[in-house]
Queue: 4 jobs
Job 1
Amino acid sequence: MVDSEAPVNWITATPPRTSDGLLMVVDGGATHSRVLIAETDGSLRGFATGQPTNARSVGARQAAVNLGDTLRRCIVEGTADGSDVAYGYVTSAAVDTEAQSENLSDAARSQLPNATVFAVPDTMGCWAATNRLEPAVAVIAGTGSVVVAADRSVGLWQRFGGWDFLLGDEGSGFALGRAALRETLLVGEGRSGATALSTEVLASDAAAARGIERTEDIPDAVHTPAIDKAWIASFAPIVLQLSDAGDQHALAIVRREVDILAGAAAAGIEALDLPNGTPTPVGLFGGTFHSTSLRSAFDDALSARTDREFVASVPVHSALVGGFMMALGAAPSVRTHDVAVAADRLAAELSKRPGS
């Protein structure tokens, strides 16, 4: 039983894989989810995409329903039977507590009668993919943002940020989108010269979808009928495109947001505390890192915040494949080389599947 009064250490809490059989892995977020069933050598036996499993976005009950529906399709449309799955590893946004873990674990167990199933934060798949289960820092900046540092050899798992949009999400699509809307309001009041950004925001499909024609329409569109984190994040590409093109107002927004995120990454590097001469692998996940200006700004900000050597890169494998690595590596006897080979095979097969 995990101590519900203390932060969960998802490295030490993950149960071992003690029996042979198929593996089931979930990568769930705020906008969609992906489920796969595979053999331990990485051969794919089933794959499906579905609705989100982020309880903060859709509620705990609906998150469980969505996971169950997607898993069911993965089984029905694939070549595996749920009873043949021995181990299930669910990674999902909004899993921070034992209760949240159990909610999604139960949803999967109902269709996997012989499996050990455990749900963890979506950061775990990202972390595992960064350095193939070896010590690393993972930085996720998609719709939201969070940083995690982990080392299985010493039982270290530590999260930085990940407090959702009211308290955190710095450097994320949401934060950039919110900044774009705020800057547009400032332009409307004559307090900002970011006219290129304002013009693009007001002319965007996202603005049209909420009936925004003038700056005065923005506050009601944001707050009524409810705050939609994903919709606000849909303005982020405007900021990033202008920033990549050299727009100074957009670039200032990017630098301001990633500076806070880089601080979290630096804290992760310090927590990992790798020996001198060993660069810390830093995995970069999420659509914002596709921007050349944001990536450059992040690298500069991180270098300014830590004296330790690091190597920041977008990992070869996805968080979904990282989740598979965690499931496979949950058996103590599995060698690191075998995990790497199986992950490569799975990634190759997933690349042929739409939505993977």
Note: Strands lie at 22-28, 33-38, 44-50, 85-92, 116-121, 136-141, 145-151, 156-161, 280-285, 310-313.
Job 2
Amino acid sequence: MSNAKTATVEVRLPSRLGYEKVAMSAASAVAKLMGFREDRIEDLKTAIAEACINAIEHGNRLNEKLSVGVVLSAGADQLEIKVIDDGSGITKPPPKPDIDRKMHGEEDPRGIGMFLIQALVDEAEWVSGADGRSSYVRLVIRLNQQAA
């Protein structure tokens, strides 16, 4: 790792839908400070919203006694985000969705979050907690990977 200093911002959200907006705002502010372009910041906000909603609904099962942790680590050339919940994580990714079937109402419109997240960021990794708790998704968005 380089000697560049990393700035870390941590946010703890209640497991209640709507609070993903707080994580979106924090990530947007950090990405702006780092110099990300507006379109990349919008991609990041969408990916973080999806990850937080998944953590609230699937990880913590809407249990308001549990919280979702969001850790933003700003390096010299990339922003790493971890969205942490108290669930056991996913054992295997769901099958690739048929977007056309979903759009035409032939398939449940839910279930595209993981694929959307992967399309919007440079790296996405789902990690299951060793103890069946504290699972997280790790997202990375790089400054130098921005399209012209």
Note: The mean pLDDT is 86.
Job 3
Amino acid sequence: MEDYSKYVVSFDSHPLVAHKLSKLRDINTGSKEFGEIITELTMIMGYEVLKDLKTKTITIDAPLCKMDVPVLAQTITIVPILRAGLGMVDGLKRLVPNAKVGYIGMYRDQESLKPVPYYFKMPENALDLPTIIVDPALATGGSIEESIRLLKEQGYKKIKVMALFASNVGVKLIHDNHPDVEIYAATYIPTGLNEQGFIVTAAGDIGDRLNGTY
């Protein structure tokens, strides 16, 4: 398979990211710490993902003078894919506290490995906002690709994807079908998937590990 690493912004060279990913992969990491690490990774990645947010200038009273300073001129919409994506919401909300949140419910048919949507709820007046789909694992890419399609059908255009683990297979699917959507991942994994569609070197079923149901 062609190397699709050029189509994903990854954080593979960042020592903090590498360290925290190692903790996620460790089966001895409990649910509480697991969730905290996901929040931390999302915040680290968020600085890059949100670097193109628009700002405006306001005047403030600083300790020694008045100053014209930049502040955010827009918010964002965070769209977690239920249920594992919920683990990444808090990290972005800490960076952008007034962010809106939409929800997409998607499960994977165990035989076909195809995504089946069951819930779609987006905030009002959000079509023009930067929209960040969050899901810890971009494995087959089916759920994220279907989520992008659903959002585009509703008129959303400014869409980005954030994942912790991104496989070559998933990146290929997203890029081939939605080349306008930027993909960010804590780590890009060029190897394939197992028969169940999991990234073997990732962190297992992240939804289960977040909720202690494994």
Note: The chain has a mean pLDDT of 93.
Job 4
Amino acid sequence: MRERGTTTMNMQSSAMIALLAAQQAGEAAPPQAAPPAPRHLFGPVIDFLCLGGSSLLLLPLIFLLPEAELKAPLATAMMLLTNLVNHPHFAHSYQIFYRGYARKAFTPALGRAMQVRYLVAGLVVPLLLAAFLVHGALAADTRLLGYAGNLMALAVGWHYAKQGYGMLMVDAALKRRFLDERTKKILLANCYAVWLAAWVGINLAVQQENLWGLAYYSFALPQPLFFLTSAAACLTTALSVWTLAMHWRGKGTLPVTGVVAYGVSLYLWLAFLRVNPLWVLVVPALHSLQYLTVVWRYQLNYEKARLANVAYRKGNLLRALFGPSPVGQMIAFVATGALLGFLAFWAIPLVAESIVPYDRQAITGFLFLFTFWIFINIHHYFLDSVMWRRENPDTRLYLFG
């Protein structure tokens, strides 16, 4: 036993002597790998402002503006801005979703579950929605068409809420400041609660709205439902604040830009949308800007990856016209989106309005403008619910890759 203990002590002494000799010779221990630097979509300031932070600056300014004098000119300015921001943001979802659609929907290239989602959102939903709108138009049933407007409000509200949650997840992934599963479940439950409370509140506060001369109606919801959904929204909001505070306390950091985007989307753009009449006019453009920031990064990464293929660089008219570079192809993508948005929201419905007969005594507004705008707004939600899922390999590759 004494010999074994002496041997062990000699080995330890030899190791210590060797370590001291290495240090004296200037041989440093191998450095630890530095944690990966946080990434951004376009940069910390641009991300913060475009994903929602600009609302924190604009809303106080809105309250300082004279509502009576500015409501009409601001409405006109926002209507013009829709052609540059709002309508292209809808068009981009079609450009991405239906690009290579045969591979996505009719082969298991992205997995069986994603294949079914692409089939349902890309074929089943638009066919059913179009059939519903055509039936209402042929029957000259303005009340039925009006309920489609309420469905649009429901889908748009959910889209706002889920997009805010998605921005938080994107920023957390880019910054590598991941949230635990419990926190994510609470934040997602809060999305549902705030969305439902906002939709119920609008149905109780506004009996009828007007879109292109056609009225759409609210549902006769019971008043206690508003108190129930509002209580759920308040409870989940408190839980969300608590769990984010606990995460900050435990980890010492949060994806701040994503948290701001989440809060702005749920509260300033949805729950308290009607806090100021001028604010209602501005919010759609801010929501679209948030969406475009992610889509343009996705598209830039897509073009960079695809342009590495020589055959891809040569095989398209747009690449011949705009050049085989990511910037040139982004210009082509944005220009195409603007053109498609103009066609879908204005040109095609207005042409149809002038040449397609329908019962203009029963339907006194612009039927085709109404139905096209309703269709695109509702379908857009279903497209996004497939494209931006974390299970979608394309999203992982081109947004985070």
Note: Residues 142-175 form the longest helix (34 residues).
